[in-house]
Amino acid sequence: MTTAQAQALTATQIAALTSKQIPVIETADIAALSSTQVAAFNSAGIAALTSKQIAALETADFAAMSTAQIAAIASTSIASLETTDILALSTAQVAALTSKQAPMLETADLVALTSTQIPALATATLAALTTAQIIALETADIASLTTAQIVALKSAQLAALTQAQFAALTSTQITTLSTATIAGLTTGQISALNSATLAALSTGQIAAL
Questions:
Q1: Rounded Cα gap, residues 73 and 49, in angstroms
Q2: pTM higher than 0.70, yes or no?
Q3: Within a 10 A sphere around the Cβ of 12, how many other Cβ atoms?
């Protein structure tokens, strides 16, 4: 297939491409597709794209994808997204990222997520992040986490939070932590709590410190 032929493919023809045909398409031909054409791939087609093919897509192509397409990107290929691609994702698309994709995201790409995008991450997806990824999150991102996301964090993830990150947690976020979690806080994390946050803790949480 030539680049001109690829650009001439209709949405119906693209949707009909099989998982055996798609990986052998030249990356230059994939790059030549319009956003409308990319949006025509079915989920199985998106899953069949190789890392090099995913890397060949433009930011506008990712922005045009459906949530099902975003979720279908192979976990081995998700790291091929550029920072600009990540920033272009809508909150609905961010919410579609899976727990298998999240740990494979480049740290720089994860850090690029805004404090508007971060709260959109599914709790299971957030819980799947590595401790290195958690440490890389900016304080504004930590402060933007929903209470459901805070509760979903694993003990290892919470333990990995730096003093600056822990200090960014709001009283509402802190009060959602279980007494067992509170008991596992480090000395540095406890010292990062401000007076307003301490005042919001329950008697049970205070006893667990």
A1: 8
A2: yes
A3: 8
pLDDT tens digits, one per residue of 105-162 = 999 998 899 999 999 999 999 999 999 999 999 999 999 999 999 999 998 898 899 9
Map residue 154 onto helix, strand or coil.
coil
Task: Reduce the secondary structure of 156-171 to three states and give it as a string.
Answer: HHHHHCCHHHHHHCCH
CA quadruple 97, 103, 106, 112: dihedral, nearest 10: 50
Can you tell me the distance from the alpha carbon of 202 to that of 123, in angstroms, rounded to the nearest whole number? 24
H or E element: which one contains 155? helix 155-160
Task: For 193, list phi and psi in degrees, rounded to 5.
Answer: -70, 130
Query: How large a percentage of the chain has pLDDT more than 90?
Result: 67
Dihedral angle, C-alpha 87, 68, 147, 161, nearest 10 °: -50
Rounded to whole angstroms, the Cα distance separating 9 from 37 reads 8
Could you tell me the maximum CA-CA distance found in the chain, to the nearest angstrom?
A: 70
What whole-number distance in Å separates Cα of residue 42 and Cα of residue 153?
33
